[in-house]
Write a structure and sequence with these properties.
By secondary structure, the protein is mainly alpha-helical. It contains 19 helices and 6 strands. A hairpin with a 4-residue loop joins strand 3 and strand 4. The termini are far apart.
């Protein structure tokens, strides 16, 4: 297999990425917090500042970059999904190119097989979440660091690593490790501290540019949003235990079965082709960064297969590159392809919304319903901000950050300071009829934040009573997240 075959192979893999992404855009489940990210993007476009003006629990890269890219088109499910699909395609391209640098054509093809035949990967990178952008920056950092003798690439790679952490916080330990590896590579290839200083200086400057303005504007809000909210959910019935986390790791191995098979194939090949060099500094550094991110995910209060997708382009590239110097030929690729097709067949239906109808068609129906029945000046309070945004209506604060802003244990001052709402505030909001329409599930107020705790049944009854007294139900629709519970739409009663 020659390098000339890589160009058409890249075209095939990118076409598969776009095609499968488009299918999941139309038929896939809607992530519960998609509206959270849509609202953050729209808020930035409106001139609002994260942390001080609205609740946002990740770094500032996503809302500002998406806002910049969507400025000509407006913020919607379609436009945001298109941007995610583009960044997902760029991450795939970088992974294939990196694999080719490390292990030749075999590694490039193996990487393409592993990533385009992993349904959860395509679905997550096409969603309105941080995954595509974070995965792009993390893979870009690894790709740039592969140019080990270039001071410019090492410095740019360290900046890309900082941008990755500034997109999703769980990448912080891995990104910091990549910056350290960049410094070591610079010192090793050009002895002296000048290159290392350039690398660390670039990383530090970019980190200060990302965090400095928000620390100066409102340091307390920044610290709470980025640290306090994440350290608060240490226990409770909704927190994942280690048994569930191990199950998730097993699911990841199934989703990316070609990557799970590669090391086995390499070990079996050692009898006829001994390994010439194992884990040089670059490869070991990349594996170390991915391991640190995985540990961060495992120690978090919640862990699911989609979390790990952000490091998979880099892992696929480095693992396939490592294997590519030991394996070659069509037969091993066919074995990987068979495993990939089997896992794709087993898991392709998992992200699909189970109806009735298609998720996006139902979203359009709900949005049209809201547009005809809600006064724009009053806006919408909903379990997800996606409904108001698709309808072209305002999200009533603090429901742009729903569901994470229902904070029953907070005082009124804490709610005001950190953009939450407690039970008393919620009942007052319903009594004052601040929103024209409500869109809630039956159990929308059963979970409290921060901490993932069950809300007392008495509090839930009081909230439901306030809704029934001041709003009337005008419609019921399927829940677009998983198709199980229903969404209920309420409109303000004219008379008290």
């Amino acid at each position: 297999m020659t390098a000339r075959r890589i160009v058409p192979a890249i075209s095939i893999f990118l076409s598969l990425h776009i095609g499968i992404s488009t299918f999941y855009y139309h038929a896939g489940r809607l992530f519960l917090d998609s509206g959270f990210y849509l609202n953050a993007t729209r808020s930035v476009l409106e001139g609002k500042i994260p942390y001080r003006d609205f609740f946002f629990v990740q770094g500032p890269v996503y809302p500002y970059l998406y806002a910049l890219l969507l400025m000509p088109f407006g913020v919607s499910v379609l436009s945001s999904s298109v941007v995610s699909i583009v960044f997902g395609g760029l991450a795939l391209l970088l992974a294939i190119l990196l694999a080719h640098r490390l292990g030749g054509p075999f590694a490039a093809i193996a990487t393409g097989i592993a990533l385009t035949l992993a349904p959860i990967h395509i679905y997550s990178f096409a969603s309105i979440k941080l995954y595509a952008l974070a995965g792009f920056f993390f893979t870009l950092a690894m790709y740039l660091l592969s140019f080990q003798t270039s001071t410019t690439c090492l410095a740019l790679g360290s900046i890309a690593a900082v941008l990755a952490a500034g997109t999703r916080l769980t990448l912080l330990p891995g990104s910091a490790f990549l910056v350290l590896v960049a410094g070591i590579l610079g010192y090793r290839n050009r002895p002296g501290f000048r290159t290392t200083a350039v690398v660390f200086g670039a990383a530090l400057l970019s980190a200060l540019c990302l965090s400095g303005p928000f620390l100066a504007i409102d340091s307390d809000a920044l610290i709470y949003n980025l640290i306090g909210i994440h350290t608060s959910a240490s226990d409770g019935p909704f927190v994942f235990g280690w048994v569930n986390k191990i199950k998730v790791l097993a699911q990841i191995a199934i989703e990316y079965s070609p990557l799970a098979v590669l090391p086995v194939m390499v070990l079996l090949s050692r009898r006829t082709r001994p390994l010439q060099k194992d884990f040089p500094i670059y490869e070991s550094g990349m594996f170390g960064a991915i391991l640190l991110v995985t540990i961060a995910h495992l120690t978090a209060n919640w862990f699911s297969t989609d979390y790990q997708t952000i490091v998979m382009p880099g892992l696929a590239a480095v693992l396939a590159g490592w294997a590519g110097s030991r394996l070659n030929g069509v037969k091993p690729l066919l074995i990987l392809l068979v495993f990939g097709l089997i896992s794709f067949g087993l898991r392709a239906g998992h992200p699909i919304w189970r109806g009735p109808g298609a998720a996006r068609e139902n979203l359009a129906t709900i949005s049209a319903f809201l547009r005809t029945r809600c006064q724009p000046s009053y806006g919408v309070a909903a379990c997800s901000a996606v409904f108001a945004i698709e309808a072209g209506l305002r999200n009533v604060d603090p429901f742009g950050g729903a569901p994470f802003t229902f904070t029953p244990h907070w005082t009124d001052e804490e709610c005001r300071r950190f953009k939450g709402i407690n039970t008393a505030g919620l009942i007052k909001m319903m009594s004052d009829r601040e929103a024209a329409c409500l869109v809630f599930e039956d159990d929308s107020f059963s979970v409290g934040f921060p901490g993932f705790f069950r809300v007392a049944e008495t509090e839930q009854r009081d909230i439901r009573a306030a809704i029934d007294q001041n709003y009337m139900k005008i419609g019921t629709f399927p829940d677009l997240g998983n198709g199980a519970p229903e969404l209920h739409v309420y409109r303000r009663r004219v008379e008290p």
